[in-house]
Structures are given as C-alpha cells and as structure tokens.
Amino acid sequence: MRSLEFRYARHRLRDIPLIPVTLRTGGKWKEFWAYVDSGSFYSIFDDKVAEVLDIDLTNGKKVLAVVGDGSFIPIYLHSVGIRIGEDEFGMKIGFSPKLGVGFNLLGMDIFDQYRVIFDNIAKKVIFETYE
Amino acid sequence: MKKSQEWITKNFESLVSKYGGKYIGVVDEEVVSVALSAREVLENAKKLGKEEEEVSLLKVPTEEELICVL
Questions:
Q1: Judging by beta carbons within 10 Å of its beta carbon (0-12, 13-18, 19+), is residue A127 exposed, middle or buried?
Q2: Which of B59, B66, B70 to mutate against chain A (most A CBs within 10 Å)?
Q3: Which among A42, B5, B47, B57 is most buried, taking Cβ atoms within 10 Å?
C-alpha cells in the first residue's frame, strides 16, 4: 500500500482539502487544483478546464447533477488521463459551464482508486492505494 | 511535491484576497499569470517563456464562494 499526503489549505481558520491533479486528453499534461468533495458523486471541473484540454464539451455524455440550492446543472462526461502524485490512470470527469462554486471538484469517483482519509488532526488529506 | 504545490497551500488565504474569482498560474513560488480563463493564463505564461507542464492552474474562489461551499 502506498499513500499520498496533501496538507490542507487554510482560509479564515477553516481547513480546505485542496489538491493538485494533472490532466490530459492526449496532449501535454496540465496541472489543476481541485477540492476533494466527498459529497459530490462525480468529479466536476468547469468548462474552462475542458477548453484548455481541447475537449469538445457537448460531445460528452450529458447528465444532470443536483447542486446545493436544489437546482440541476448539466455536466458532460469525458474520459481523461489523470495523474495524482506519480500514479496515472483514466477516469470520467464531468465538465460543466454552470459549475457555480469556486472550486473544481474531485468527487466520490476518485474513491474507486484510493481510500481517502480526511485527517483533521494532522491537517491533511491522505490518498491510500487499495493494494 | 513541486515547489508551487507547497507554496499554493501555504499562501491560499492571500491568493483568495488578491485573485478571488480568477484563474492563476503559479510556477515555483510565483504567480506568473492571472486571467478569467485557464486558457488565457496558460497563453500568458507561455509568452513569459514558461512551459505548460510547469504551470500550476488554480481556480481561485471568492470570499463569498468560500462561505457558501464551506
């Protein structure tokens, strides 16, 4: 078993599980930051990330996701390569022009790859491989 | 861990107050580009001679967005 540890960012005495993930769709790897959100079923990045990755947004499978105020936003699922630490794998990420939160989100689907531990005492989020 | 990653985590609060609502590109311990879109940030960084792979792209939330999310 291997583990990757990321210190929480802080804002006004609040801890924020924000981590770097590197994405690509065939071209060069590009690093983005995402909020580890155990309350989100999908990983959702805004459409500006899709643009940088040369993804034709609406070519992806469209699904609707419920957001905090109960409304639905469209997200378009695309297969991308993702790198976290030294690990590389493929996964479906949703991209949305209506992501109305201030972060890109790494959702529950990443939990298929890692056991994710929010260690609020050590102030870090830990990604452990399952093997 | 890259220098930029540790630096972003440590300086997140000041990044929010300076750049909330924008995308920023960070290389090592420096914000090299600020814009409303990630593509624009990368294009500006490339004009400064930075390689795409070395630019860390952060969507910086506003203070208000942080209150809502958290």
A1: buried
A2: B59
A3: B57
Residue A67 sits at the chain B interface (C-beta within 8 Å): no
ipTM confidence score = 0.91
Q: Select the residue of A7, A28, A102 nearest B66 (Cβ to Cβ).
A: A102
Q: Which of A20, A52, A101 has its CB closest to that of B38?
A: A52
Per-residue pLDDT tens digits for A7-64? 999 998 889 999 999 999 888 899 999 999 998 889 999 999 999 999 999 999 999 9
CA dihedral (A60, A37, B8, B22) in degrees, to 10, reads 50
Total of domains in chain A: 1
Determine phi and psi for A119, rounding to 5 degrees.
-100, 95
Range of the domain at A14: 3-129
Domain holding A97: CATH number? 2.40.70.10
